[in-house]
Structures are given as structure tokens and as C-alpha cells.
Design goal:
heterodimer, A: 333 residues, alpha/beta, D-Maltodextrin-Binding Protein, domain 2, 2 domains, 7-stranded mixed β-sheet, 5-stranded mixed β-sheet, 21% strand, globular, B: 549 residues, alpha+beta, Four Helix Bundle (Hemerythrin (Met), subunit A), Beta-Lactamase, 4 domains, 5-stranded antiparallel β-sheet, 12 helices, 12 strands, 63% helix, 15% strand
């Protein structure tokens, strides 16, 4: 018997099976054919948007077939407003800001959550005789309306048994949060994590700060106008690039932080404080719906103009996530 | 590679692959069991979260001790599930960590909520609003947990699906490999079997052809004495024409087979080799065949006796020829005996006739008044007598062609001594004879020469003396020739006597007969006379006497 042909055929069969088994899934990093699709992002340069920075730095956008232009905004709300003004196609923005904007502009659609973070703080000046949360009564407390600083100031006051009416709330632009408290225009400020960190840095020993999120993370969302969601290919490529960035960040924690420092000039000390409380992950879970629902309730109640709370699911664009990573969509539909 | 080796490889490979398949299935089942355990935990966590959400919703409107107890129990049971959560990789570990952290935070939120209800702030509106905030935060936390649980469940399901897929692919690959190996081995084995069968068929065909064309009558039988193969010679030897014997019983084909042969067949089937050199076979049509045969067992692959081989040789023709030859020999012997008797009778009658002639001549000599004539007649008598004695010796001996010349010499000399009476009474005869067989055509002239020489000695050597000595010797010399010497111690030959020129009849006869014998004659006369003849002693050495010479 000639054994060799039979043995070779058997090996060839096994190899073909093995290749068939392992070769079937496509390579997510392989660039799609054709010219890259243009995409403009309105981004707030904070750890919440880490996946954007990593995707840009590691060329995941390029590999996904995107030519991305990024504009940095001082708050998610402003980034979302830029989208509404068609200055950008996709914004990174907190769920609270999205809920606030939805009541004004129903064409906003949430595509996915790209992180959750617990970083907001109340920063107060000691020289204004503020030593405890109760000392905020009667003080001027800065906040940025329709942002996380607005909501978390409210919940902070609630949990601290401080009636909101007993403080003097001052609406300030998000980018002025640190400056306002440092200059003493307000006695305290409900600030985003980076501004709170900057304020504390600048106030030094004169600063006193409290976490105001009560360990309740907010979602950092990708939001776009409804018209844009009709271009599923761009959103699909964006999500693929961000998923690649997520995998990179999970496997390279230190390098991910370095990218944020290098690309956006974030303070390493700030990152040291906030990064562990930031979960950079692409999801579209029921908690997004719950959060948006809660914030819509709160916004409507705060406005003093009772109206029916819209169905959050109507404002979610699930198509892109369903296509790219259906396992990450954990909605009750 | 031998078929047995291939089968061993096939069985070994099949067993190994089967073990691989079993291992894969076992690993998959174990993995699925682990995933099922995880999913049970996820389900329990989800159910507790849902129960917590419902309970906290009612708690705002009915904040009693029972509700608090229920919330505490749910929180405790939820916390108790946390250590039981396991993870497969770093991603899952992260999610599990998030769930554990959120569960801890959930506990704080619950305590705040309960405290807000049990120890309300001063303003009741504040209490209600605060509860709403705490509850909404609690629900958001539970939803974070639920989301992560859902993620874990999805991951688990993905892993199960992937494992099932891989298991199916690997199992299929193993099954295909098994099928391939077994097919390959079966194919190879089948080919071997086909080759073996073809070889067997070819071997059987060769055996069949060998038997069929064997220049001998041979047949192969199974244990039931059915024909398996038969040679053409067998068919022709037994006048079977073109009958198809294969499968037929030998005893049906030849019902006349004697019982003794059947017993021989059974002995061969028992392992014995049985043979006969010449056996009479009385055929059913009353014809007779003489056979030389041998039956011996043949063995199959298991070395068991599968039947017998039968070799037969029809020896009828040689047997009959032998019998005819025997009869012919008998006839020839009888004829020879008859001729011998006849020849003896001829010799006897020749001798008798010569003896009658001799006697008549002797009577004539006795009746003749003339002494010289009487002497001549007596010499004739002696000469005839010497010839008659040859014939006498011939018919008396067993050999009718040759004569023991020593015996003859003795008889002739006795006769001559008696015939010469007083003349020979004082003459002493000395014989030195060794047996020499001479054919008739040598014996007759040699006997005549001896007669002449002895007669001459008795008549002339002693010149009337009454004493003397004659010696006769006979034998063979080194070269095989016969030497006859007659010597007397008489007066000897005259000094100037040339016996070859002698005028006497006797010596002329000697000379003539010696010529017939191609004999060398040597004559010596020294204290007597000595004649020595040396001549070829064998039959072929002596040319036949031609009557004309």
C-alpha cells in the first residue's frame, strides 16, 4: 500500500477543517474597500471620550475606513448643540445633557454609550466658610444648566438634606466652572470631573470637594441627528473603531492613559484619580434607557411644565449596534 | 503493509479519535455545565434586582418594617450571590468587579433610602423628593447591575455557542477523520482482499490449469469426494468425454469403484497417503483397466484436510505388453530349449555317425591284410574319432557352442593310449591342463592337431622302445592366447628335418590346421620333440573355416 498519499490527504483534510474553523470570522481590523468615509465628531476631551482618542491615535478610525475630523468642545451639551447645528455629525455627550436636549430637539438619537464615569464633584472655597455640605446653604453655587453638573448638584443637595431653594444657584458656562470658583464669582461649583480637578488644583488648600454622584455613574453617549443615523455604514465603522479601541484600552491600560495625556493634554494626576472610576466600553444597555428616563422626568419636573414623558426607546438608534455588536445591546425591547 | 497492520492502525486511530471526540464532548459538556451554573447565578441576581425594584417602589408609599425587612433580605441575598460569581477572562472579571461595586453602592443607596423614610428630614416635601431621587438612583444602579449581568449572560451564551460550534466542527472533523481513516483502511483492505481474491482466483486457476493440463490423470476432491478439479488426462483415461465433473461425486461417476478403494479414500481423508502399483479396475462395461494410483490428502489454510488428491496412471497397455513379452520369452525359451535339444541331437548324431564311420574304417583296417593300408585306415579312424569326440563333448556339455578343451584333451589322449595298445603301454603321459573353452571351429582343428602330434609321438618318437614320456600342456598365456604343447622325450627329429617341408600327411595336416587356427607353431627337438602352438583362444579370434580352403 502507498501510505503517503492517504496520510497527506488526511493531513490536508484536517488542515482545511482547521482553516475553515479558524479562518471563517472576518478580521475586524481589515480596512473596508473603497475610499474612507468622512465623519466629524464633536468631542469633549475627557476620559469619558477615551475611546475616541485611542481610536484616533491607534488609527482604528482609518482602519475602519473612516476619515475622522474631531472638534473639541468644553462640554457634552455644547458638542451636542454643534451636532444640532450640523457642525458635526456625532457628539460625545452625557445622558443628562441628551435628555435635556431631547425635550427641545426630538431629532437627536442615541447611538451607543461609550463609557460610564463617576467624576463630578462639588468644589467649594473654604474661605467662604464652607466646611460641610450644609454650609452651602445661602451660598452661591455655580452649575451648568442641563448638564451633569446641574443634575448631580440637585441629587447632592437631596441626599445631603439641603433644600435646593436654600442655595443661590448660578448658571455658568461649562468651560467657566473652574474659573468661576477660582475667581470667587461663586462660592462653590458643581463641576465636571476635569474642571473640578482644575479648580481644586488652583484653589489648593482653599478648596473643599465632595463627590456628588453618589457613586451613580452617568453614561457618556454617542449622539447624532436622526438624519445621520440613516447612514448606517459610517456609524457601523465608527462603532467598529471604538470597539477596537476598547479592546486596546482593556489590554493596554497604561498606554491608553498615555494617549489621553499626549493627545488631549490631560493631567496625569487627574487621570490617576478619575480613570479607575471610568469604564470605557461600548454598550447599549437598559441602564441607558433608565437613566434617560429618569433625567427626562427630572427635566420635566424641573421645568415646572408637566408633560408626558417621551418613550426613550424612540430616541435610541439601535441599528448600528445591532449590526456591529448585537451582544452588547441589552435593551428590554 | 500487511492487512493486519492496517487493521491495527485503523482500530488505534479510531480509538484515539473516538477518545478525542469523547474528550471534546466531555470538555464542552463541562464548559456548558459551568456556563449553566453562571447563568443560574445571573438569573438569581436578576430576579433579586427585579424584586428589589418592586419592593423599593412600594416602600415609598408603604414604608413599614416588613418592607424594610424584605429589602434587607433581598439586599443580603444579592450580596451573598456576589462571591459565587465566577469569570472566564479579564473582560468578565471587569464586569464582575463592576457588579460587585454597584451591589455595594446599592447597599448604601438602600440604607439612605430607608433612613430617609425612617428618619425623614424636617420638610415632608423634601422627604418625598429625596426619596424619589434615592429610588431613581437605586433603580439606575440596579439597572447598571442588570446591564452587566445581561452582558455576562450574553458572553456566556456566546461562549456556549462558540464552544458548541467548535465542538461540532471538531467532532465533525474527528468523525470525518474517522470516516476517512476507516474508508482509507477499508479501501486499502478491500484492495488487499481483492488482490488476495484475485491472487487466490489466479492461484486456483493456475492449479486448475495445472491439473487440467497435467500429463497425468489426477483429480482433486473435497471431503465429500466431489470433484473440485480434474485433468484432461483423467477424462481421456476413463473415457469420460467432455462431461462436467466439477461438483459431482466420484462414486456417482464411477459406481463400479470397489469397496477397497473407497476405504483407501477414507484413509486418505484421515491423513494417510495410500498407493498401489498395479490394481485391476473392472469397469462397468466389463472392460478392464490396470491402474497405478496414489491418493493423498490436501490441506486448507487452516491446515485442515480439505479433501484428497488422486493420481492414477493407466498401465493397461504396458501391463498387456509385459504379459505379451513374458509369453514371448516363454515361447523363445521353449524354442531355444527345443533347438538345444535338436543341436545336441545333431551333435549326438554327428558323433554317432563319425563313430560309425570310425568303427567301419577300423573294421576295414582290421580286415585289411595290407598292414600299411591298415595303418592308414587306423589313422583315419583316429582322426574321425578325434572329430567325433568334439561333437560328443559338445552335446554332453551344457554349452553347445564351446568345448572344454582340457576335458577333451584328456578324453582324446585316453582314447589314443587305448587305441595304440602295446605301443603306448610303456609310454607315460603327463598332463598339465587348465580349462580352456574353445569354440567348435577351433576345437575341431585343434583336436586334429593334438591327435596328429600325439599319434606321431607314440608311433615315431620311441622307435619300439617300451618306455617313454609324453607330456601335454594346455593353458592360456599372458596375452590371452591359448597355448598347447605336446612334448615327448623320444628320439627327436632328425637334425636336418624341416617339419614344414615334411611329406607326411600328419605334419601336413598340422601345418594346414595350424594355419586355420592362425597358430604360431614352435618346434623344438632337444632330448625329444616339442610342438608348441599358440593361437587365439576366443571365438571371434578364429576365422571360420572356409570349406573351399
Amino acid at each position: 500500500m502507498k501510505d503517503a498519499p492517504h496520510r497527506n490527504a488526511f493531513i490536508a483534510l484536517l488542515l482545511s477543517l482547521a482553516l475553515g474553523t479558524w479562518g471563517c470570522p472576518g478580521d475586524p481590523q481589515q480596512a473596508p474597500e473603497g475610499p474612507p468615509l468622512k465623519l466629524s465628531l464633536a468631542v469633549r476631551a475627557v476620559p469619558d471620550s477615551a475611546l475616541i482618542a485611542i481610536a484616533q491615535e491607534r488609527d482604528f478610525f482609518k482602519k475602519a475606513g473612516l476619515a475622522v475630523s474631531i472638534v473639541i468642545y468644553p462640554s457634552g451639551r455644547q458638542a451636542l448643540e454643534a451636532v444640532c447645528r450640523d457642525e458635526a455629525q456625532v457628539a460625545t455627550v452625557a445622558d443628562i445633557a441628551v435628555a435635556a436636549k431631547l425635550l427641545e430637539s426630538p431629532s437627536i438619537r442615541v447611538v451607543a454609550s461609550i463609557s460610564t464615569t463617576v467624576s463630578s464633584q462639588i468644589v467649594a472655597r473654604k474661605d467662604r466658610r464652607i466646611g460641610t455640605p450644609m454650609d452651602l446653604k445661602g451660598k452661591r453655587v455655580g452649575f451648568s444648566a442641563n448638564t451633569t453638573s446641574d443634575y448631580f448638584l440637585y441629587t447632592f443637595l437631596m441626599t445631603e438634606n439641603i433644600p435646593p431653594g436654600e442655595i443661590r444657584a448660578v448658571d455658568i458656562p461649562p468651560g467657566w466652572q473652574a474659573e468661576a470658583v477660582v475667581r470667587g464669582e461663586v462660592d462653590a461649583v458643581s463641576a465636571f470631573g476635569d474642571y473640578a480637578f482644575a479648580a481644586k488644583q488652583r484653589l489648593g488648600s482653599n478648596a473643599i470637594a465632595w463627590d456628588c454622584q453618589n457613586n451613580l455613574a452617568y453614561h457618556w453617549l454617542l449622539a447624532a441627528r436622526q438624519e445621520f443615523t440613516r447612514s448606517p455604514e459610517v456609524l457601523g465603522r465608527l462603532l467598529r473603531a471604538l470597539l477596537a479601541a476598547e479592546a486596546f484600552a482593556r489590554a493596554n491600560d497604561a498606554r491608553a492613559r498615555q494617549i489621553l495625556v499626549r493627545l488631549w493634554g490631560l493631567d496625569p494626576a487627574f487621570l490617576e484619580e478619575v480613570w479607575p472610576k471610568t469604564r470605557a466600553a461600548v454598550t447599549l444597555g437598559q441602564s441607558v434607557v433608565t437613566s434617560l428616563g429618569n433625567f427626562l422626568h427630572w427635566q420635566i419636573r424641573k421645568s415646572g411644565n408637566p408633560r408626558e414623558v417621551p418613550d426613550v426607546l424612540d430616541y435610541l438608534h439601535t441599528g448600528a449596534m445591532d449590526t456591529v455588536a448585537p451582544q452588547l445591546v441589552t435593551l428590554y425591547r | 503493509m500487511q492487512m493486519r497492520t492496517r487493521l491495527r492502525i485503523s482500530v488505534t486511530a479510531s480509538l484515539m479519535l473516538s477518545l478525542v471526540v469523547v474528550g471534546i464532548v466531555f470538555a464542552v459538556l463541562q464548559g456548558m455545565h459551568r456556563e449553566a451554573q453562571r447563568n443560574r447565578t445571573y438569573t438569581e441576581i436578576r430576579s433579586r434586582i427585579n424584586a428589589l425594584n418592586v419592593t423599593t417602589a412600594h416602600f415609598q408609599s408603604r414604608p413599614d418594617a416588613s418592607a424594610i425587612h424584605q429589602i434587607h433580605n433581598l439586599q443580603a441575598s444579592l450580596a451573598a450571590l456576589m462571591p459565587t460569581m465566577t469569570f472566564f477572562d479579564a473582560g468578565e472579571a471587569y464586569l464582575v468587579g463592576q457588579i460587585r461595586a454597584n451591589t455595594r453602592d446599592l447597599g448604601y443607596a438602600i440604607e439612605r433610602l430607608i433612613a430617609n423614610v425612617v428618619e425623614p428630614p424636617a420638610a415632608s416635601r423634601m422627604q418625598h423628593e429625596r426619596s424619589a431621587v434615592l429610588v431613581s438612583q437605586l433603580w439606575m444602579k440596579t439597572q447598571f447591575i442588570a446591564d452587566d449581568i445581561q452582558r455576562l449572560a450574553e458572553i456566556s451564551q456566546t461562549r456556549v455557542t462558540r464552544a458548541q460550534g467548535v465542538a461540532v466542527i471538531l467532532t465533525l472533523a474527528a468523525v470525518v477523520a474517522l470516516l476517512f481513516i476507516n474508508t482509507a483502511i477499508s479501501y486499502a483492505t478491500g484492495r488487499s482482499l481483492i488482490r488476495m481474491q484475485a491472487g487466490l482466483r489466479a492461484s486456483e486457476e493456475r492449479l486448475r490449469l495445472f491439473i487440467e493440463h497435467a500429463p497425468a490423470a489426477l483429480a482433486m476432491f473435497d471431503r465429500q469426494m466431489r470433484y473440485l478439479s480434474v485433468s484432461r488426462r483423467w477424462m481421456s483415461d476413463y473415457n469420460l468425454g467432455h462431461r462436467d465433473l466439477i461438483g459431482q461425486s466420484h462414486y456417482t461417476v464411477f459406481p463400479e469403484i470397489p469397496e477397497a478403494w473407497k476405504q483407501a479414500h477414507q484413509r486418505a481423508l484421515a491423513g494417510e497417503v495410500v498407493r498401489a502399483e498395479a490394481d485391476r479396475f473392472q469397469r462397468a462395461d466389463d472392460s478392464v483397466q490396470w491402474l497405478r494410483w496414489e491418493v493423498r490428502p490436501w490441506r486448507d489454510q487452516k491446515n485442515e484436510i480439505g479433501g484428497i488428491m488422486m493420481f492414477t496412471e493407466d498401465i493397461t497397455a504396458p501391463k498387456l505388453a509385459d504379459e505379451a513379452l513374458h509369453a514371448s520369452e516363454e515361447h523363445l525359451r521353449a524354442s531355444l530349449e527345443e533347438k538345444e535339444v535338436l543341436l545336441k541331437e545333431i551333435h549326438h548324431r554327428v558323433k554317432n555317425n563319425m563313430q560309425v564311420i570310425s568303427s567301419l574304417v577300423a573294421l576295414q583296417a582290421d580286415e585289411s591284410p595290407d598292414g600299411a593300408l591298415s595303418a592308414v585306415l587306423r589313422e583315419v579312424t583316429h582322426r574321425v574319432r578325434s572329430m567325433a569326440m568334439v561333437h560328443e563333448k559338445l552335446y554332453q556339455s551344457g554349452d553347445l557352442a564351446r568345448v572344454d578343451f582340457a576335458d577333451y584333451t584328456q578324453g582324446l589322449l585316453n582314447y589314443l593310449w587305448r587305441a595304440h595298445g602295446d605301443a603306448a603301454a610303456g609310454i607315460r603321459l603327463t598332463l598339465a591342463l587348465t580349462p580352456v573353452m574353445l569354440v567348435v571351429n577351433a576345437a575341431v582343428p585343434c583336436g586334429l592337431i593334438l591327435n596328429e602330434l600325439v599319434s606321431n609321438a607314440l608311433k615315431h618318437a620311441f622307435n619300439g622302445h617300451t618306455a617313454g614320456h609324453v607330456s601335454v600342456s594346455l593353458g592360456r598365456v599372458a596375452d590371452g592366447r591359448v597355448r598347447l604343447t605336446v612334448r615327448d622325450d623320444g628320439a627327436g627329429l632328425p637334425p636336418d628335418f624341416d617339419w614344414q617341408k615334411a611329406r607326411t600327411l600328419g605334419l601336413r595336416l598340422v601345418q594346414m590346421l595350424a594355419g586355420q587356427l592362425h597358430a604360431a607353431v614352435e618346434v623344438r627337438s632337444d632330448g625329444g620333440t616339442e610342438f608348441t602352438l599358440t593361437f587365439p583362444g576366443a571365438t571371434h579370434d578364429i576365422p571360420k573355416h572356409h570349406p573351399d580352403r
